[in-house]
């Protein structure tokens, strides 16, 4: 049996689409904070990561429910593996001669945003919203503290 549009009720598809939209909006919130901080992964990247994570998770859950067999966490495993590659790319991005690791917070925020998408798709929308608020606060407050700390200590 092939999983097709005709076999999946429109209401179910709209529920999945709504979860993906919520994830995209939540990812965009984190992305806007990263863009404000002039970091390489901004609004679009975070929104797409959250949306892709939500879509993959939701479709995995729906496929298992439709077929009555399988493991709905396989989609989550695939998301986490894919995010590992994106994170490694953010960290390994070449910088001018400096050997100090960079991109760690960007990689972590992309990973976190994927987890927010997974939460939204799994039906934990309130948790996803609160987690987004926490990450936004963390990035903003620690970023402001770090900027003040660095400027008071003459760090460029």
Largest sheet: none
Order of secondary-structure elements: HHHHH
Radius of gyration: 18 Å
Q: What class, by secondary structure content?
A: mainly alpha
* Strand content range: under 5%
- Rounded average pLDDT: 86
Number of DSSP E strands: 0
Number of domains: 1
Low-confidence region ranges = none
Shape: elongated
In short:
The protein is mainly alpha-helical and 156 residues long.
Please, could you describe this protein's structure?
The protein is an all-alpha fold. It has one domain. 76% of the residues lie in helices and 0% in strands. The chain is built from 5 helices and no strands. Helix 3 packs antiparallel against helix 4 and helix 4 runs antiparallel to helix 5. The chain is elongated. The mean pLDDT is 86.
Task: Give the SSE map.
Elements: H1 10-36, H2 43-67, H3 73-92, H4 104-121, H5 125-152
Please describe the structure with a list of short key phrases separated by commas or semicolons.
5 helices; 156 residues; elongated; mainly alpha
